[in-house]
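Lab notebook: predicted structure, single chain.

Context: the supervisor wants predicted structures on file for every construct in the current expression panel, including those that have not yet been purified. This is the next one on the list. No modifications to the sequence; it matches the entry in the shared construct table.
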Amino acid sequence: MSLTDCTRTKLVAILGLILCGLLVIAACGSDDDAQVLEEQAMEDGIDLDAIDRVDDLVEILSGHDRDELRGHAFEIDAWVLAPPRSRNSPGTPPQGCPVVPDKQDWLSDEPLVTRFEVAGASIPNEALAETAPVLRLVVPYQLGFIDIPERARLRGYVLVDQYADCPGAESLFVLEDVVEELPAERTDELNDVVTEWDRITSEHGRILLEYPADWEIEERESGPSSRIRFLGPEPFRTIRLEVQDGETWWHPEADGGNPPDILGGDRREEATAGQAYARLVDDRRRSGGDERELRLVFNHDGRTIVLAMMMQDGADPDLESAWVFSEMASRLHLEGDVSMSDPMDPMLAASDEVGEGPFLSEADARYVAVQDSGMTMAEAVEAELVSEQAARAAVDGACRNFDGRPDGVWLVTVDGITPGGSEALRLVYLDASSGLRLCQAEAPGVD
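Prediction complete. Output recorded below exactly as produced.
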């Protein structure tokens, strides 16, 4: 055999060994390679049918190919929450857009606290809107009025073309069906946080106030004014009572301009303090981060009285402080007359004269009141045309605060049967010009 033939033979043998080695390696690594390919495939695509959480859907909406998401029916398990902003607050949809996103119900994986109930007022937890991963529920008109449970499995769509030009379109979940109701157990409901109470009297304001027995108090007086601080076991829980000489009054229509500093803030909601009407001022100007100051402001005996606290809101709100504050407000007792205690009482700007009209006739007012009373076998037994001021003063309660500034009000007493089957005597308030119902209350003198 020549040298060339020998060399050629060795090369063939070497190549054969290399080839065999590669085949062995390939055979041994086939399972691993398949796994790598499978993982790569999972990375390249997402199983949309497996998405059943709001958080996951929010995440893929922010980073996935949106064309793949359009038209896909998602089924998600979600809490259905009232939005921080009131559904009845001002605001209309943009032209060509059928929804106002910040007034739509929220969908969340957790039972977020979107609003606080404090001293009879509802305060929005706006800080959540900046951080919470939520979708906003759209119920198409064709579904009509449907009952949506507090927590449910919902089927619907995202990135629907009909809503593409709406603000926040990427966060809208357009409902197709309520698949099933799910268990809804909340842990944020508080009852009887405090079981033992002590009492203190403020001589300046003729106020009796109860406070938790395990809280400490600090009193300070300065001339005609006084302050009492209530200090809870935790240093961040502090409530103060201030009594200032002179009453505070302000009404935007009567006075215009900015409110007095004590009423300044994001909102001034109708509230109660014991037997008095008050304003709950929600003020985030004086805090940083997820905090707000809440001030319950009312007038009594020639003085302005303020019950105030700082409260943490956001994703982890201090509901216990809100409960204690509300309970102290409800237990508060004032001596003497409290009829004009709300510093923004609508009576401040109410006209004491009936305008020139034209107004509904008495016969028409009686007919409209009967129809609007919601009662059966109803009959209008009395009708009187009065001024706005007289109408607001007619019955103590919510009807004192009806909306608008009517030139005249028809007060119509209607006798009838309520939907519950009981006999009732109701006072129906009608705008004398338009005939629109302003309010309805139990007629005076009815027990």
